[in-house]
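User: Can you fold this complex?
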Amino acid sequence: DAGITQSPRHKVTETGTPVTLRCHQTENHRYMYWYRQDPGHGLRLIHYSYGVKDTDKGEVSDGYSVSRSKTEDFLLTLESATSSQTSVYFCAISAGTGDWETQYFGPGTRLLVL
Amino acid sequence: AQKITQTQPGMFVQEKEAVTLDCTYDTSDQSYGLFWYKQPSSGEMIFLIYQGSYDEQNATEGRYSLNFQKARKSANLVISASQLGDSAMYFCAMREGLPSGSNYKLTFGKGTLLTVNP
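Assistant: Here's the predicted assembly.
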């Protein structure tokens, strides 16, 4: 257990509404990531953070923004949700040192955009 | 080209038998890492095992071992003595380059669904 929680765990929303997903960690990890999981695609990186206020884009960042105002929280925002953003969203942290650094995942958030 | 390829969408194995899940990767980096994760039907992603590109020995973690063949660019997961609780989706993933946080991004395969039969 890497001390990662995600909220909400499930959400149903309508097209065009803003949505914010929260990832919270309790172990002061520097690096945090947001992935989405879709059938037939595995997990794909949306955005990641390498420190407070330091973020960068991943493979599928269009339509998403992130913020990290404190170490423990990494927020993912869908400014105007679309049906294509229906997915399972995972937050992850990296822990360990050097070559043994490993990513650990939160429980996931199921988002349905109608 | 896909960086991680898992060619087996589904696999079946009898309880107590061993099973190999295939993973091939594509990278031009000399330094990289390979990971396997398990996702049971409950949905969480569970880290299983890691192999670094410079590791000369295959990684092992309990009943899990990673059959690393660098020249073939394969990193197959071997589960010995399968149990019913091993039924899950299994993902292979790769980190390219040295782990330094900002470039520590994982690329995932599409997964293999393993079913263990009693």
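The mean pLDDT of chain A is 93. The interface with chain B takes residues 30-31, 33, 40-45, 48, 50, 56, 58, 88, 90, 92, 94, 98-105, 107-108 of chain A (CB under 8 Å).
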